[in-house]
Amino acid sequence: MACGATGLQAQSPPASAAQPKTFDVVSIRQNITQQSVGPLNLTPGPDGLRVERQAPMMLLMMAYTPKAGGLFMNTTIVGLPDWAKSDRYDVDARISDADRADWQDPKNQPAMMQEMLQGMLSDRFKLAVHREIREKPVYELVVAKGGPKFHETKADEPRPEGPTLPGGGVMGHGVDGATHMYNFSMGLLAALLTDKSDRTVLDKTGLTGRYSIDIREPQEMAAPSAESNDTNEDNRRPAVADVLKSVGLELKPAKEQVEMLVIDHLEKPSAN
């Protein structure tokens, strides 16, 4: 049973000369059910965004993206308190009638949602953040010799059953045992690999489209630890290397300037 104040609270827009767009009303309730994670479907609805049993970290990932694209993940968000990774919330954020037409335009919605989520996090979680560039050990995701072995997602291509991730990609598991990635950018794939590694994975493929990729050995989808022995190519070869090679990609260790999202302040959400 969810706890927290009931009802919807009108959201006060942040003070700004430009008056950024905000959700019209927002309800945030802590979810204390035994299920630790809800269905990961972050597709906005026609009148706003609803998520269930998600940590504030997920909202941050949706609200802020690196300037080069992709997602901020565990290794690129600094100063996030533990509760923001473990506490789960149900969020019902609705748009105003005046914003409905713009919201329902696919060209406008991604930027609108980020702007509105940033305003909601500032208003209800008292979030303050800044960006920094730091040099870090990374893995570069590159195209392997022979080129990519996947295709751009077609408009009439069937959408697999599975969660919609931040960034719009869909990931589902087929009866053939494969993981099907649909409408995936290379930045989203790099972010997915980052989440399984203690090094950031950067997209260096040069591929700018949206792709359908079949991974035939999903149990092997684990990137290497940054503690791998860099003096031995075989020892530091990622467990995921063979899987990526099967789709014409590979990871190469390097040092790069990485954009970090630094949390200056974050509080548990104010009551509705």
Looking at how many chains there are and whether they match, the oligomeric state comes to: single chain
The count of β-strands is 12
Mean pLDDT: 83
How is the main sheet built? 4 strands, antiparallel
Radius of gyration based on Cα positions: 20 Å
Total discrete domains? 2
Helix content: 10-25%
Distance between the termini: 17 Å
What portion of residues belong to β-strands?
Answer: 25-35%
Runs in which pLDDT lies below 50 for 5 or more consecutive residues are 1-8, 218-238
Q: Helix/strand-derived class? A: alpha+beta
Report the principal-axis shape: globular
Strands in their spatial order, largest beta sheet: 1-2-5-3
| Total of DSSP H or I helical runs spanning 4+ residues | 6
Describe the structure.
This protein has 272 residues and is α+β, with helices and mostly antiparallel strands. It folds into two domains: 9-128, no CATH class; 133-259, no CATH class. The chain has helices at 56-63, 83-86, 100-103, 109-124, 186-194, 241-246; strands spanning 9-10, 25-30, 48-54, 77-78, 89-94, 128-143, 151-152, 170-173, 179-184, 200-203, 211-215, 249-265. Strands 1-2-5-3 form a four-stranded antiparallel beta sheet, covered by helices on one side. Strands 4-12-6-10 form a four-stranded mixed beta sheet. Helix 1 crosses helix 4 (109-124). The longest helix has 16 residues, at 109-124. The protein starts with 8 loop residues before the first strand and ends in a 7-residue tail after the last strand. Mean pLDDT is 83; it is low at 1-8 and 218-238.
